[in-house]
Specification:
mainly alpha
């Protein structure tokens, strides 16, 4: 069930209405049932996989807690708690590997054997990737690690823990929540608060605007250019690259806004997942702003355990590369994702190595780093680097990606005059609509970056003005949104991960 589908527009109000009508102690069970119904709309059988991962991590938490308590009581412990957490990670990552990476491994082994003149091994299983599997497995694993680190208490109510893992607003594409933040929110039923419902719905409208009006409109041109990239060069490829940066941001930030807003309507607080990443002044800053829940997950559960920056510069660079190679693989079982992750890691390593030289040159030429122009230059350079890496993220194959980059600087000025830009799936009206929508997104982002809280500002206005803005926003989404034939809602990009 997609957020931008008619089914969800019927499902969500019904869930919220019943959530506030039933007694407080039963609300958690209502959320658990509806979350599984939500997930089963894709493939009912894969709900068993979600349940199995939930049961494994729940039991692991109990066993870890019991083992540590027995040790503290002076009892002899035969099986160390490290065994239980290793089993939890081993089982869950094995599930993830089988469904997401097994065929990728077989394909690469066959390619290697073919280059050596050897007979290929049997093909993979060709199973359908369960939607959101990377998200809910990472969320469940963070619980067992937090129990092991004594950062959260052991949860003994299986139904509450299952609701935490399967909570439908963020089940299939995040944010990847921590048990210390979300699990405890199920302890106490949330009372109906008009302000929370109002603010949550406004955030959802903003998310729909980013997804349906901006991302899905940009996707028309992006798909045309990237799917037939050999027919284009220069200016057209540049347009495709920039618009994909727009699409992937509007798509994923839009999803996160809808998820956070939907949870807020029911009184739950989800973590921020985006913080205006294209205003970043370095690649490292970009990753502190983009998909924050995943970036912090890798920081807390991979980078720091590897040693972080505590074991010298060389080890820190190795750890950064390991994290970003894993991040690339997390996003997809293909070499273009691995290269994308490696590029983002290399950007940071090279940037750190060159930092003393950059600072020396800036002092020598008298460049003032506190000026707006310097910050703007940093943002533009960071965007260029990120956008170049997006080519590998979006391209259908690695060869396509290198082909796009090789033709990027083959310019044909006639493109700007012969109307070819209007044959990329858009007419002039669609280009104008996209331009105005991007101007709105940029204006809102600038205000947020300057510390202006738009929802709070709007709530201080007169009622007639607030309603006028809300109605205009809903109409903009309904009228300007891209829905496809017969309202064929477009899936979110990150659903495939």
């Amino acid at each position: 069930m997609l957020f931008n589908s008619i089914e969800f527009l019927l499902f969500f109000p019904a869930v919220v209405l019943m959530y506030y009508l039933i007694p407080g102690k039963l609300r958690m069970y209502w959320l658990l049932v509806t979350s599984y119904v939500f997930y089963m709309c894709w493939n009912p059988s894969y709900a068993l996989l979600l349940l199995f991962s939930t049961a494994v991590t729940f039991c692991s938490g109990l066993l870890i807690g019991r083992t540590m308590n027995r040790r503290e009581a002076g009892e002899r412990v035969i099986i160390n708690e490290k065994i239980w957490i290793a089993l939890s990670f081993g089982i869950n990552l094995s599930i993830l590997f089988f469904f997401k990476y097994f065929d990728f491994m077989v394909d690469n082994i066959n390619a290697l054997r073919g280059s050596m003149g050897l007979e290929q091994i049997s093909p993979g299983f060709d199973v359908l990737l369960p939607v959101g599997i990377s998200f809910y497995i990472f969320q469940a694993l963070s619980y067992t690690m937090d129990v092991y680190r004594r950062q959260v208490r052991v949860e003994k109510n299986f139904f509450k823990y299952a609701t935490f893992v399967s909570f439908f607003p963020q089940l299939v594409a995040g944010p990847i929540e921590r048990s210390s933040h979300l699990l405890t929110q199920f302890d106490k039923p949330q009372p109906f608060r008009f302000s929370a419902v109002r603010d949550g719905l406004m955030l959802m409208i903003w998310g729909f605007f980013q997804k349906i009006v901006i991302a899905d409109r940009a996707a028309i041109v992006v798909n045309q250019i990237f799917n037939y990239s050999s027919y284009y060069s220069g200016f057209e490829l540049l347009i495709g690259m920039v618009l994909f940066a727009v699409q992937v941001y509007g798509d994923f930030a839009g999803y996160s806004s809808i998820a956070i807003g939907a949870a807020q309507v029911m009184g739950f607080d989800l973590m921020e997942n985006f913080r205006r990443p294209y205003f970043a002044t370095s690649v490292a800053d970009f990753w502190r702003r983009w998909h924050i829940s995943l970036s912090t997950w890798f920081r807390d559960y991979l980078y720091i355990p590897l040693g972080g920056s505590r074991k010298g510069r060389a080890r820190r660079y190795i750890n950064v590369m390991i994290v970003f190679l894993c991040s690339g693989l997390w996003h997809g079982a293909a070499w273009n994702y691995v290269i994308w992750g490696a590029l983002n890691g290399l950007y940071q390593v090279i940037g750190s190595l060159l930092k003393p030289l950059r600072e020396k040159l800036m002092r020598k030429v008298g460049m003032r780093t506190e000026t707006f122009s310097h910050r703007l230059l940093q943002m533009l350079l960071t965007f260029v680097l990120i956008d170049l890496s997006w080519v590998f993220f979006r391209a259908n194959t690695v060869n396509d990606a290198f082909g796009i980059l090789s033709r990027l600087f083959v310019w044909n000025p006639e493109v700007l005059l012969d109307g070819r830009l209007l044959r990329l799936g858009f007419d002039a009206a669609q280009w104008a609509t996209l331009g105005v929508s991007l101007a709105v997104l940029l204006g809102v982002s600038v205000l947020q970056e300057c510390g202006v809280h738009l929802r709070e500002t709007l709530n201080r206005q007169e009622a007639w003005f607030r309603w006028m803005v809300v109605i205009a926003s809903v109409l903009a989404v309904l009228v300007l949104g891209i829905y496809g034939p017969s309202f064929d809602a477009s899936a979110f990009i990150y659903f495939q991960f």
